[in-house]
Amino acid sequence: MKQDNDILREAGRRDGLAVPDGFFDDFVQKMSASLPENPAAEHPQAKVLHRSVWSRIRPYVYMAAMFAGIWCMLKMFSIMSPANVDLSIENNEALTNALRDDNFIYDYIIDDVSDREIMEEMYEDSVTVDDLLPTDSLILRDGDGSSDDSI
């Protein structure tokens, strides 16, 4: 026996989207009678469509107009941008003053400062390691890294 898998029928519910009985029996005749006569549809080879010149070149004209619009937009951007921006160091007072400052040079331009250079600069400025450490917390260490006593 064939099992019926219609869930709506099992639930006893109708959604209102049913077709009345006999609706499609004479559907073709009703549709044919309601449509107007179209001889071109009955004889498609009788009428040959000729494309006009405009319909053939229209895509190329549209594409050329698009590229011309992009060119005009870029031209306007170049016209509106400041043309005479002088980026030379001689005319820029802030950059000239910054480049005269040694601290600016060491902080922002020279990035490969070695420990030896730092120690040499500290020596030139008369800064020693003893000046950096407070004397009450100086710890003497042996060669193995263990501390002997504090001074």
Which features characterize this protein?
single chain; 151 residues; mainly alpha; two-stranded antiparallel ribbon; 2 strands; 5% strand
What does this molecule look like?
- With 151 residues, the protein is mainly alpha-helical.
- The chain is 50% helix and 5% strand.
- The chain is built from eight helices and two strands, in the order H-H-H-H-H-H-H-H-E-E.
- The protein has helices at 7-11, 27-34, 39-42, 53-80, 93-100, 102-109, 115-124, 129-132, and strands at residues 139-141, 147-150.
- The protein has a two-stranded antiparallel ribbon.
- The longest helix is centred in the middle third of the chain and has 28 residues, at 53-80.
- It is elongated, with a radius of gyration of 46 Å.
- 0% of the residues are buried.
Question: What's the short version?
Answer:
With 151 residues, the chain is mainly alpha-helical.
Report the end-to-end length measured between terminal Cα atoms.
105 Å
Shape: elongated
Structural class: mainly alpha
Radius of gyration: 46 Å
- The portion of residues assigned to helices is 40-55%
Major sheet: arrangement of strands: 1-2
Task: Spell out the helices and strands N to C.
Answer: HHHHHHHHEE
For the sheet with most strands, the description reads: 2 strands, antiparallel
The chain-level mean pLDDT equals: 76
Low-pLDDT segments, ≥5 res:
none
Q: What is the strand content?
A: under 5%
Continuous helix count = 8
The strand count comes to 2
